Amino acid sequence: MMMENLNLRHLRAVLAILRLGSVSAAAEAVSISQPAITQGLCKLETQLGIALFSRMPEGMQPTEAAALLAPRIACALDHVGSPRVTMAQMRALLAVAEGGSYARASALTGLSQPSLHRALADLGIALRRTLVERRGKGIGFTESGRRMIRAFRLARAELLAGLAEVETLKGREVGKIAIGAMPLSRARVLPAAVAAFHAQFPDVRIVITEGAFADLIEPLRDGDLDLVIGALREPIPGSDVEQQALFLDRPAIIGRSDHPLADRVPTLAELAAYPWIVSPQGTPLHGRWREMFEQAGLPLPTVPIECGSVIAIRQLLVTSDFLTMLSPDQVAVELSTQWLRKIVDAPAGLTRTIGVVTRTGWRPTLAQAAFLEQLRLASR
Predict the structure, then answer these.
(1) What's the rounded Cα separation, in Å, for the pair 350 and 364?
(2) What average pLDDT score do residues 308-336 get?
(3) I need a labelling partner for 24 at 20 to 30 A (CA). Which of 68, 186, 271, 286 fits?
(4) What is the CATH number that goes with domain 174-248+366-380?
(5) CA distances from 162 to 66, 81, 87, 201, 281 (A)
(6) Is there a contact between 325 and 289 (Cβ–Cβ < 8 Å)?
């Protein structure tokens, strides 16, 4: 079912029934009439295609589906915050945020622009704060608006995970895994894990977003990505994310196949005499490159180009005397075809940890947990 069809008041009622054991007690707790809760629960169970409660003389007994869904509902509603917020308002704010304008949001959702305006105005009244403001001919979001966008995205992620878990209980593996892929992960580990996972769960959609760490960390925090794979950061970039190591990568010095240093083992001083292409400052690989020369007491070589694109680096290397530091896995094809050559390994100890970054407290679905296991297997 579509998440947009859910009613947040009905979801609050489900938690109240779980907590209190009866519809009548739940009706009093959430200030909804008993017939309205009964009707809402029946509608929700019809939408889900599965019962959430067994109606017993001693009260409402939760089914396995309710036990799976309840923690997701609780977390989603905690992100939403106010009981006055509706799903229509939540949907409108996310649509305008992701579309960048009312016109684009209307095209994305099929909702009229007046409906979107009205929903956001009602949301601002419900939350007692200004969320959207005019900026010239366009719109922008206030600080409160940006906080609510992130909260609603995280709520959406929880609800979608809950719906996927219910479908799993019904014997259907569905849902989506949204992966942020930094450069090294795209070489071998991620493709191997995705191929093995798809064979196991062919109906689960996998969406891979490529980028540098700085491009991926905020979508992860927003709930738009489930996990990010690549070189881990030291120190960890905040208490709201967690890192899990997969393997250690030892980079190598790479140049063109007929580079002047290709037929011998060069010293660091000889390497320093050539111009370099290195990854941008602040990345783990850039830090290892600096360490290589600083630990030897040598001045840093000339770096005319900073670049994180392996494709661009490859093209620059094959037509010049530039050197770079990369994992051999990142240019495995180029090495096998002898476009490029490993000049020498980086000194021992100059490794970087490759792993997975997730939100703190993130609870993977069965399919997401299975994908993580495939990542671990591929990393071995």
Answers:
(1) 33
(2) 93
(3) 68
(4) 3.40.190.10
(5) 10, 18, 16, 17, 40
(6) yes
Position 338 pLDDT exceeds 80: yes
Two domains, one topology: 174-248+366-380 and 251-350: yes
> Do residues 242 and 357 lie in contact, with contact meaning Cβ atoms separated by under 8 Å?
yes
Give me the pLDDT at residue 1, please: 58
Mean pLDDT along residues 61-83: 95
Task: Name residue, tokens 């709520």.
Answer: 155
What Å distances lie between residue 46 and 40, 52, 60, 80, 301, CA to CA? 10, 10, 17, 24, 67
Biggest CA pair distance of the chain: 86
Q: How confident is the model at residue 58 (pLDDT cuts 50, 70, 90)?
A: confident
Question: How far apart are alpha carbons 3 and 348 in whole angstroms?
Answer: 51
Query: Strands, E, within the chain: which ranges?
Result: 53-56, 59-62, 132-135, 138-141, 176-181, 205-210, 227-231, 241-249, 252-256, 276-278, 305-306, 323-326, 340-345, 352-359
What pLDDT was estimated at residue 49?
Answer: 93
Q: What pLDDT does 240 receive?
A: 95
Neighbours of 125 (CB within 10 A): 11
For the chain, which residues make up each domain, given as ranges? 1-172, 174-248+366-380, 251-350
User: Could you tell me the two tokens for 75?
Assistant: 């977390």
Report DSSP state, residue 4: G
Is the pLDDT assigned to residue 137 strictly greater than 90?
no
3-state helix, strand, coil in the chain (%, to 5): 50, 20, 30
Identify the three-state secondary structure at position 208.
strand
pLDDT tops 90 at residue 380: no
Residue whose token pair is 């620059």: 316
Cβ burial of 266 (10 Å; 0-12, 13-18, 19+) is buried
Q: What distance in Å separates the CA atoms of residue 380 and residue 84, rounded to the nearest whole number?
A: 49
Q: Tell me 227's DSSP state.
A: E
CATH 3.30.1490.100 fits 251-350, yes or no: no
pTM assigned to the model: 0.87
Say yes or no to pLDDT of 301 above 90: yes
